[in-house]
Each structure stands twice: as C-alpha cells, then as structure tokens.
C-alpha cells in the first residue's frame, strides 16, 4: 500500500494554494530575500506536485498522440534552444505584441521539431539512443 502523499487526490488543493496563496505573497515580498526565497521554493514544489497529480488523475490513459509527444520530448528538449534563440533574435525588433512573438516562437520551434522527430529521428539509431526501444 502507498502510505505517502497521494498526489492524485491532493492536486486540487496544491494548485490553488500555490497560485492564489503563495504566488501573490511571493510578488509582495520580492524585496525581502529571506522571506521570498522559501515562498518561491514552496510555490515551485506545490506547482510540480500539483501538476503531476492533475495529469496523473486526468490524463492517465493510453493515447497515441500523448505517447508520440512523450517520445519526442527528449528530442525537443535537446534541439529547441538554438531554434528559440535564433527566432528570438529574428523577432526582437518586430512591431508585434510580446504574446504574439511568444506564440510564434513556440509554434515555429515545436512543430518543425515534431516533424523532424517523426521522419528523421524516431525510427533510427538516434531515436533508439534517445528513447530506448519504443513500443508501437
């Protein structure tokens, strides 16, 4: 039996406490490092455990799409930084809202990396190196 924290049961509590309790306090105490630092740490851990619990509770089903993104995640992690930096440099002087630039950089990074993962990486030695044997 699991006698530890049950993230699947407590996510609904952790996320609101972090977002509506700790986050405003963290913003209000930015000038006081001794108070702010433990609040930031607590916020971060509650968000991590809260999202783990949320996803385990709500998305704990087999899905080919989620499996594909999960398999591709290490490829995206390794390859995204140069693309993001290049796109940020390209977009920095554009007269466009920051939210639009953010969405454009995310899409123009993620979509090509998912395509390259599917056609150039997944079923190759590199895919095996990144993910091990992928069951399909």
In words, what does this structure look like?
It is a single chain. The protein has 5 helices and no strands. The longest helix is centred in the middle third of the chain and has 28 residues, at 64-91. The protein is mainly α. The mean pLDDT is 91. The chain starts with 6 loop residues before the first helix and ends in a 5-residue tail after the last helix. Helix 1 (7-28) runs antiparallel to helix 2 and helix 3 (64-91) packs across helix 4 (98-121). It has helices at 7-28, 33-58, 64-91, 98-121, 125-131.
Radius of gyration, taken over Cα atoms and rounded to an integer in Å: 19 Å
Strand content: under 5%
Number of helices: 5
Mean pLDDT: 91
Largest sheet: none
Instruction: Give the helices and strands as they follow along the chain.
Output: HHHHH
Helix/strand/pairing category = mainly alpha
What general form does the structure show?
extended
pLDDT < 50 stretches: none
The tally of beta strands, per DSSP, is: 0
């Amino acid at each position: 039996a699991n006698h530890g924290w049950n993230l699947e049961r407590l996510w609904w509590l952790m996320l609101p406490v972090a977002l509506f309790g700790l986050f405003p306090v963290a913003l209000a105490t930015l000038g006081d490092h001794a108070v702010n630092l433990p609040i930031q740490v607590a916020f971060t851990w509650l968000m991590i455990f809260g999202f783990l619990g949320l996803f385990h509770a709500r998305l704990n089903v087999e899905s080919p799409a989620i499996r594909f993104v999960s398999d591709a995640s290490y490829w995206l992690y390794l390859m995204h930084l140069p693309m993001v930096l290049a796109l940020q440099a390209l977009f920095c002087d554009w007269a466009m809202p920051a939210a639009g630039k953010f969405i454009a950089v995310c899409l123009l990074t993620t979509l090509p990396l998912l395509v390259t993962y599917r056609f150039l990486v997944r079923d190759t030695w590199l895919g095996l190196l990144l993910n091990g044997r992928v069951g399909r």
